[in-house]
Amino acid sequence: MVLPIYLYGHPVIRKETEEIDASYPQLKELIANMYETMYAAEGIGLAAPQVGLSIRLIVIDVSPMAEYFPDCEGKRLTLINPQLEVLEDGRKESRDEGCLSLPGVYESVTRIEKIRLKWFDEEFVAHDEVIEGYLSRVVQHEYDHLEGKVFIDRISPIRKQLIKAKLVNIIKGKVRCDYRVKATPAKK
Question: Could you confirm whether 107 is annotated as catalytic?
Answer without folding.
Answer: no
